[in-house]
Design a protein that fits this description.
This protein has 650 residues and is an alpha+beta fold. The protein has 24 helices and 24 strands. Strands 12, 13, 14, 15, 16, 17 and 18 form a 7-stranded antiparallel sheet that branches. It has a 5-stranded mixed sheet with strand order 2-11-10-3-9. A 4-stranded antiparallel sheet has the order 5-4-7-8.
């Protein structure tokens, strides 16, 4: 009994921690499959022992609201649904009754209230009893009617979701990989819970009604009649199908086949009794209503053998582990590999080569490892990068271990070096995407940075490249010629010196009257006398120019370039202020443009929040990102772009 009680406490603590990481910090400690398995284990232990901890995830409907949005008490508690993965269990639950089977959309549940035909209130689910007031944001959802024909008080519930296609577009516009959203649900949550609804409007949030709570004076006998009526009022309702126990397997199969082409995220189905009076008469448990039940996809799990772990380097130096296993058929396709994400997950699985593993497709789409049946022990982590052969290093951040290549000259990193050199803040050479640079490097047309200015010798080969032609080549060479004239500070920044951003480069170049020779020979003592330049930056610059290979690189570039002094721009109220920018921007073309705007007015932009930061600019000011948390700890204002632009007018 003591062992079971101990296990209950362990599972309760761990599952709560995993849920908070996923829902509030956008991190995944374990897979959905593993969470469900541990949840079921906890539930069984609670039933066996009769012991349920006060904070057990089997009893809690949600977590406390953490944002600064106004709080609203729900008139009736919003409970979670009991769940099953068995179609037979659904049939037994439905019995002889008729039901409605619909998508269980994976977004943010919202309660809308209308009076006199107008939308007057929108509240998030929150912890089930208290939610956040997001009325202004709901008014800019892509498909929510602001007025409806019905004039009585109407309260309905639905799911706010963002399409996969919109999610991919929004993430693609965020240059900082660490700032990108993990999945559509996280993006939707951040979009709906904004203080500035201008941001919400640009995120293409959709709302699908799934439940009518009250409609003053209106009476309905069935859920299907309610859904039809809501459609007549102008709402989009979640897709549903009428079912009986007899045709349930057929309808479940219809939804399971459609999920792969569905643009909206879904993590299962919901079955509801169509007869409203019958369903309500069943009452509720402490956590679940009895009129509905959730169906989570029965993961098609196959057993196979782990053949190897492939370590795949990225351009940032991160080396990602990928499981390679004997091919198996999953959801109609052959699968032979799945991401392991990081070293911590591998350690938890005690993953060794030759182990018997089980694999599945999360939400029937993404291959994942479910379990390791033999657990022979952690396979070796490479001490050398698989590309360059140089050393690797394990980083431990927030309890998650990842592997990185430490070689600055790794060929994979070389692409990043060239990408940085041609970027907008550096030489601003258009027509050189990472993919194009990778081709040029692979074909040995580019070895050193200065080679960019001699591509004319490869003209015939370049115009034959896929995606290129005479016109594209001419545009590229024109852009390269234009880049020969560059500000000294941008040239220094383009070199990719560790810890030296464009703002620091400008401070240094101004101090030395834009004389590159003086910058190259500056001492640590001279550099640290510049306001805003500390020992770390100073030593990075001195170390860079002390290496013969870097001196040769700079000399080769100077032979191709014509350096210019920075254009004089009048200072403003931003002068002397230090800013950090994170997340996506809305009123500037990109974060670099906002950075330029600040620096040309005498301000400074840094990459991390410290006690010296004056403002953190983040349109998603309610997120639980690391930078937001740090700013709150230090008492640094977190402002949106609109609030930032108002600073000059204050």
């Amino acid at each position: 009994m003591e062992e079971k009680k101990k296990r209950i406490r362990e599972l309760t603590e761990f599952l709560n921690r995993a849920a908070r990481a996923y829902e509030q910090e956008d991190r995944e400690l374990i897979s959905n499959y593993e969470y469900d398995r541990l949840y079921d284990e906890l539930k069984q232990l609670e039933e066996e022992t009769g012991i349920v901890m006060s904070d057990s995830p089997t009893m809690r409907a949600g977590y406390e609201v953490l944002s600064e949005l106004p709080k609203v008490q729900h008139d009736s508690p919003m409970l979670s649904l009991d769940k099953t993965k068995e179609v037979a269990a659904l049939q037994e639950w439905l019995g002889e009754k008729e039901g409605l089977l619909s998508w269980k959309l994976d977004g943010l549940t919202i309660v809308l209230t209308y009076r006199n035909g107008a939308l007057v209130q929108a509240v998030t689910r929150g912890n089930g009893e208290t939610g956040e007031l997001v009325t202004n944001n709901a008014k800019v959802f892509k498909n929510v009617p602001l007025s409806i024909p019905f004039r009585g008080e109407l309260v309905l519930r639905g799911e706010a979701v963002i399409k996969y296609s919109d999610f991919e577009k929004i993430n693609a516009e965020i240059e900082d990989v660490d700032a990108r959203y993990k999945n559509p649900r996280n993006l939707c949550s951040g979009s709906v819970r904004q203080l500035n609804n201008e941001i919400t409007a640009k995120r293409n949030v959709n709302f699908f009604a799934f439940s009518l709570v009250t409609a003053e004076g209106a009476e309905f006998a069935t859920r299907s009649a309610q859904m039809h009526w809501l459609t007549e009022q102008g709402f989009e309702v979640v897709e549903s199908k009428a079912v009986t126990a007899e045709n349930l397997p057929e309808i479940v199969d219809y939804f399971s086949k459609k999920i792969t082409e569905n643009d909206f995220p879904s993590d299962g189905l919901v079955l509801t009794f169509d007869d409203i009076a019958y369903g309500e008469a069943l009452g509720r448990t402490a956590k679940f209503p009895r009129h509905s039940i959730a169906f989570k996809w029965q993961d098609e799990i196959r057993e196979t053998t782990l053949l190897e772990v492939e370590w795949s380097p990225s351009r940032t130096g991160l080396i990602n582990p990928v499981a390679i296993f004997e091919p198996v058929e999953l959801e109609g396709t052959s699968v032979a590999r799945a991401s392991l994400h990081n070293i911590s997950i591998m350690e938890a699985l005690e993953l060794g080569i030759g182990d018997r593993i089980t694999v599945y497709k999360a939400n029937m789409i993404i291959p994942q490892l479910a379990d390791n049946l033999t657990r022979s022990g952690m396979c070796p982590v490479p001490e050398a990068c698989p590309v360059c052969g140089k050393g690797t290093r394990i980083k431990d951040e927030n309890g998650v271990k990842t592997l990185h290549c430490v070689n600055a000259e790794c060929p994979v990193k070389k692409i990043k070096q060239f990408t940085h050199f041609v970027s907008r803040d550096a030489l601003n050479i258009e027509g050189l995407s990472e993919a194009t640079l990778e081709k040029l490097i692979d074909e040995r047309m580019l070895c050193e940075l200065a080679d960019l200015f001699h591509l004319e010798q490869y003209k015939e080969r370049i115009v034959q490249m896929e995606g290129f032609g005479e016109k594209s080549y001419q545009n590229l060479t024109n852009s390269i010629e234009k880049a020969r004239e560059v500000e000294v500070a941008k040239f220094v920044y383009s070199l990719g010196i560790l810890n030296v951003g464009l703002a620091n480069a400008k401070l240094i170049c101004r101090q030395f009257d834009n004389d590159i020779a003086r910058v190259r020979t500056a001492t640590t003592e001279e550099l640290t006398q510049i306001p805003g330049i500390g020992t770390v930056i100073a030593e990075s610059i001195v170390d860079f120019f002390a290496k013969p290979e870097n001196i040769a690189k700079v000399d080769a570039l100077l032979a191709e370039l014509r350096l210019q002094a920075e254009e004089n721009v009048a200072e403003s109220k931003l002068a002397g202020k230090t800013f950090v920018i994170t997340g996506s921007v809305e009123q500037f073309a990109n974060r670099n443009e906002l950075k330029d705007y600040i620096e040309k007015r005498g301000g400074k932009v840094t990459g991390s929040v410290t006690a010296k930061t004056d403002y953190l600019i983040n349109n998603d000011n309610m997120s639980n990102s690391t930078k937001n948390k740090k700013a709150k700890e230090l008492g640094i204002p977190i402002i949106t772009e609109t609030e930032f632009l108002a600073l000059e007018e204050a």
